[in-house]
Amino acid sequence: MLPMDSQPVIVGLGEVLWDFLPTGRQLGGAPANFAHAAALLRNEATIASCIGTDHLGDEVIPKLAGASLSTENLQRDSMHPTGTVNVRLDQNGKANFEIVESVSWDFLEWTDKWRVLAHRADAVCFGSLAQRSPQSRETIGKFLRATRPQSARVFDVNLRQSFYSAEVIRDSLKLANIVKLNHEELPTVAKLLEIKYDNEESAARKLRDAYKLDLVCVTRGESGSLLVSKFESDEHPGFKVQVADTVGAGDAFTAGLVHQYLKSALLQQMNDLANRMGAWVSTQSGAMPLPSRDLTNILSEL
User: Fold this and answer.
1) Residue stretches of the chain with pLDDT short of 50
2) Which ranges in 67-184 belong to alpha helices (H)?
3) pLDDT per residue over 160-202, tens digit each?
4) DSSP letter at 146?
């Protein structure tokens, strides 16, 4: 899809926020986590979001810049606070989220600057959470419709609390050419969209066919993932690692998937790198860990 020597422009579109974890405050939000992992994979990555003019918003910019992420597409909102989430971890390190409402990323604005970014983007990852407010949902739709036809538009379903509906999911799938969801979300999505659920692969294939998607990805946590394209499918068993927490692991998985997709890689290659990235992040604390020797080993194989 891209010349071998080009650096893809990859956009995380939607929420950026502070996760308040038991171990302390960490920057997060699925699109921001995705963009961070994409930057670690040596892509030109940016987060298109909105933060408040409060002290938490001020602290976002140097944090993202330190992670080699462009901050020029961050909007500032003086009327609404920077987003926050209270994160609780169970005994297995699985995260549970309490997401504060009516924050800055609920009020994304469609601007000429974002129109230019949309046209440049080789890949955009967006989710259902940032569409919980009408204004941000409208802006996200305009952004996606302004991308080039060949761009990867990745819908990360990301069901959180009650912040989703059949309408949002259906409209998002119509705008996407790739969808990623986990094995717990797939039955829920199938029911909302009135797709018969027999098993994961059958449901994924029906979802792909119904919305003419290039790729459906079903993640299975520590048990790996399933990829379904038009003509084939691939299953990966995952990698067994010592889990610190799972915050951001799915977003790193998506970054690995997109990185290989843009290189027109085989499904097996997409699945392998995606699982390696997800496993690596799960061994670290927080959603945007600094590079480590394990990551260096992953990059050396690309």
Assistant:
1) none
2) 112-120, 134-145, 166-175
3) 878 899 999 999 999 999 999 999 999 999 999 999 999 999 9
4) T
Q: What SS3 class is residue 50?
A: strand
The domains of the chain are located at 9-286
Tokens of 293: 């020797």
DSSP H helix total and E strand total for the chain: 10, 13
Residue spans of beta strands (DSSP E) within 103-251: 123-127, 152-156, 178-182, 215-219, 225-229, 233-236
Question: Which of 241, 203, 239, 214 lies closest to 224 in space, CA to CA?
Answer: 239
Identify the CATH assignment for 9-286 out of 3.40.50.150, 3.30.230.10, 3.40.1190.20, 3.40.50.2300: 3.40.1190.20
Question: What are the pLDDT digits (tens) for 66-86?
Answer: 887 889 999 999 999 999 988
Output the CA–CA distances (angstroms, integers) from residue 179 to 53, 176, 246, 298, in the order listed. Answer: 33, 7, 20, 24
Residue 68 burial (C-beta neighbours within 10 Å; 0-12, 13-18, 19+): middle
| Rama region for 4: left / alpha / beta (φ>0; ψ in -120 to 50; rest) | alpha
C-alpha–C-alpha distance, residues 234 and 220, integer Å: 13
- The answer for residues whose C-beta is within 8 angstroms of residue 237's C-beta and 6 or more apart is 223, 224
Judge contact between 179 and 207, C-beta under 8 A: yes
Q: Rounded to two decimals, what is the model's pTM?
A: 0.92
Query: Would you say 281 and 249 are in contact if contact means Cβ atoms under 8 Å apart?
Result: yes
Beta bridge partners of 292: none
Residue 100 in 3-state DSSP?
coil
Q: How far is the C-alpha of 102 from the C-alpha of 87, rounded, in Å?
A: 18
